[in-house]
Design brief:
The chain has helices at residues 54-62, 81-99, 103-108, 112-116, 122-125, 133-154, 156-177, 187-204, 210-227, 232-251, 258-283; strands at residues 18-19, 27-28, 45-46, 51-52, 110-111, 183-184. It has 284 residues and is mostly helical.
């Protein structure tokens, strides 16, 4: 049967070949489903329909927001690096202090007399000191058990900021309410501040925090019984109070502009501590 002149039939012509946009020496008949640029076999990335070029795949990934925790940390496997760094610093400080026969601790520990003499760095560096071998082992154990879980929820910078702020809270409490002759090691107050903040996080997630509160009471009572005259228990109380305050800032920051609100809140807590120290110096 003769074909009717002018009637359109199926197109059996071979597809047009063009050089790959990334490898001009390679001819291809496949094009990207998004940008329609020709792509060779090496550049093909399977998509829901057809293939996409590497550029379109990269741009698509860039527009996808990484999942985050309730407190703003990016969800990713592994983690705990900041916790391990803090643990390493505590361990190295203890060893160096042992080697130097106590010289390092004499430079870093909290001392109210030293603060009055202008050695303000002790307000921060005290949180790196643990004292006895039992003290450093207990701090390392708590950090290993609880620190990594807290960091996974907060992220590295929030975890380090929480640790530093809780340590500052402990030294501030000792300086403001303790006698001039008092002093102490600050790592325990920073660690207990982490636990206090974690109790706030659990409270927000509707979890039972009675065991956490009981632990704080026992630790503080134990510190009072074994060292009431050293007033080290004041540092623990300061760590709990400031750790809880920072926990509230991190846990209840609004989702919109969350990081900004958290930073401002952290700075606000730190400023309150520093103002309390300045006021005590002025009164004294």
């Amino acid at each position: 049967m003769d074909q009717i002149p002018g009637a359109a039939g199926p197109d059996f012509s071979p597809p047009g070949f063009a050089p790959c946009y990334r490898h001009p020496e390679r001819m291809t008949g496949i094009s990207c489903q998004r940008c329609q640029r020709p792509i060779c076999g090496e550049c093909m990335n399977p998509a829901s329909v057809g293939f996409q070029c590497p550029s379109c795949v990269a741009s698509g990934r860039a527009t996808v927001r990484a999942p985050r925790t309730t407190f703003g940390a990016i969800l990713k496997p592994g983690g705990g690096n900041a916790t391990k760094v803090v643990m390493a610093v505590l361990a190295v400080e203890w060893v160096l202090n042992l080697v130097s026969r106590g010289l390092l601790d004499r430079l870093l520990v909290m001392s109210n007399e030293a603060i009055y003499l202008g050695q303000f760095w002790r307000l921060i560096t005290a949180s790196l000191t643990s004292g006895s071998i039992l003290g450093v082992l207990m701090n390392l154990l708590v950090l290993w058990i609880a620190g990594r879980a807290i960091e996974s929820e907060l992220g590295s910078w929030r975890f380090v900021a929480l640790y530093a702020a809780a340590g500052l809270g402990g030294t501030t409490m000792l300086f403001v309410f303790g006698p001039v002759s008092s002093g102490g090691y600050g790592a325990a107050s920073a660690v207990i501040g982490l636990l206090a903040a974690n109790a706030i996080f659990k409270q927000k997630m509707r979890e039972d925090v009675r065991a956490d509160i009981g632990l704080f009471v026992l630790l503080i009572l134990y510190s009072v019984l074994i060292g009431f005259r050293s007033f080290g228990w004041l540092m623990l109380i300061g760590g709990v109070v400031v750790g809880a305050l920072v926990g509230v800032v991190l846990a209840y920051a609004p989702r919109r502009n969350r990081s900004t609100v958290q930073v401002v809140g952290l700075l606000g807590v730190i400023m309150v501590c520093l103002l309390a120290v300045a006021l005590k110096l002025t009164i004294f």
